[in-house]
Specification:
- By secondary structure, the chain is of the alpha+beta class.
- It has 13 helices and 13 strands.
- A six-stranded mixed sheet has the order 5-8-3-2-10-12, with no helix packed on it. A four-stranded antiparallel sheet has the order 1-4-7-6. It has a three-stranded antiparallel sheet with strand order 9-13-11, with no helix packed on it.
- Strand 2 and strand 3 form a beta hairpin.
- 28% of the residues are buried.
Length: 442
């Protein structure tokens, strides 16, 4: 084998090795990263013989804030007096309490090393953060009911979305599976364009107010998850992040529903912008929104037509604007305007966003038969929204979603760079070791 072929073989091995290691590292990172809301259940850390007969979960999501109340009815099945070491993994928790119906139970926070040394736990499968621990004493066959109240603040993922997962940890070694579970999730200030991805939740299971109610009998299947983006809050938050007074005053007036004041402040700032780091299109958007909320639909439609939507944050705000334009045209009895939007929107979301398609259909936004034929000929969107179907498992779709996640994650490029440098160093060093040496002797 000549030198060129040998180098080509090394490069192929290098590329293959990098891909395998990066994919494996990214998968581990995705499982262990403490973003979004994992919806952890109750953990039995000393594996005592107890059963949860009934579990009732009530979760409210408001932007990045989580309020969760878990009620458990627990029975001792050991036939003797026992002390159970219960625990909850941390997930951005800032408020925690346990009440047994008559009093609050004491609890402590400890790191995973404490669990290993005191309870002998192995392979927790949760992020390496602190744990909230409390003990309960049971007499033989005793049943006790507790209420766990949690307040938490979520962290966004790299693509600026929040993933809410539920029951996906119930197959972990120390997690307890309940005999019967009722589950209620409320997305505050819910808007249909906020839904980014559904898994294990059907579009029809989300109410118009953003409530989801599920029930489970022993088996949780693959659990459930919803990825969402509080677009309205994030758009206003981008302006409020400015260190200048006027942008903050704009958002304050807007949040207080003083829309006329918001319009005035926006006009003043647009005429004389001060913060070079603040995208002026974001302020123009707040102004347009204020006009819409004042019922000035012609003014709103004119304003959004002049916006450079590609510069707005977050990127999915275009779906909000499209739905708001539909509402404005509806209020103006402009069927042509409605039809023009639907011709482009419906073909785009038929595969990429089943919930938004469902919402449009439920609210009477559909295409006529002729329009459906015309729409079918339209090309696919350049940047389709990632989604999952709750029925079956789409291997190709899952692979595409995974590759997309790798591409969007900053960790991918960090790990890739380190691995390339390391492996190139190893190959170079190995090549030097194998360099031929000629000895000349008398």
């Amino acid at each position: 084998m000549n030198r060129g072929e040998n180098m080509y073989k090394k490069i192929r091995i290098l590329i293959f090795t990098v891909l395998v290691v990066v994919i494996s590292a990214a998968a581990v990172y995705a499982d262990r990263v403490d973003t979004g809301w994992k919806g952890y259940g109750l953990y039995n850390l000393n594996k005592s013989q107890v059963i949860i007969y009934n579990e009732s979960d009530t979760i409210t999501i408001n932007g990045e804030d989580v309020s969760a109340v878990y009620e458990y009815t627990i029975t001792n099945k050991s036939g003797k007096n026992i002390t159970v070491n219960f625990g909850y993994p941390d997930n951005g928790i800032y408020k925690f309490s346990v009440h047994d119906g008559s009093k609050f139970l004491s609890y402590k926070t400890r790191n995973p090393d404490y669990l290993v040394s005191n309870y002998g736990v192995e392979n927790l499968q949760t992020p390496d953060g602190r744990w909230y621990l409390f003990n309960m004493v049971f007499t033989p066959d005793q049943t006790r009911t507790i209420k766990v109240t949690i307040g938490a603040e979520m962290k966004k993922e790299d693509n600026d979305t929040y993933k809410l997962s539920f029951f996906k940890d119930r197959n972990y070694s120390y997690a307890i599976k309940s005999e019967k579970t009722s589950f209620s999730l409320k997305l505050a200030d819910f808007k249909p364009y906020s839904v980014y991805e559904l898994d294990g939740i059907k579009p029809g299971e989300i109410s118009a107010e953003g409530s989801i109610t599920l029930s489970f009998d022993k088996s949780y299947g693959n659990g459930a998850s919803i990825r969402y983006q509080p677009i309205d809050r994030m758009a206003a938050g981008k302006v409020n992040a400015s260190t200048y007074k006027k942008p903050k005053a704009i958002v304050k007036a807007f949040n207080e529903k003083k829309y006329n004041d918001a319009v005035t402040l926006c006009d003043e700032y647009i005429k004389s912008p001060a913060d070079s780091s603040l995208n002026l299109e974001q302020v123009k958007y707040i102004r347009a929104e204020s006009s819409r909320l004042l019922g000035k639909y012609d003014e709103y439609l004119s304003a959004v037509e002049q916006l450079d939507i590609s510069k707005l944050y977050p990127g999915r705000i275009r779906y909000k604007i499209l739905l708001d334009r539909l509402d404005a045209y509806s209020n103006l009895n402009n069927d042509e305007g409605i039809g023009n939007i639907l011709k482009g929107l419906i073909p785009e979301i038929q595969q990429s966003n089943p919930y938004l398609l469902y919402w449009l259909d439920q609210n009477g936004y559909t295409l006529s038969e002729n329009e459906q034929v015309d729409a079918a000929a339209l090309t696919e969107p350049e940047n389709p929204v990632i989604s999952k179907k709750s029925k079956g498992f789409d291997i190709l779709g899952a692979l595409i979603n995974f590759i997309t996640a790798l591409r969007e994650s900053r960790w991918t490029y960090t790990i890739l760079g380190l691995l390339v440098g390391f492996l190139l160093g190893r190959f170079t060093k190995r090549g030097k070791r194998k360099k031929s040496v000629y000895l000349f002797r008398d």
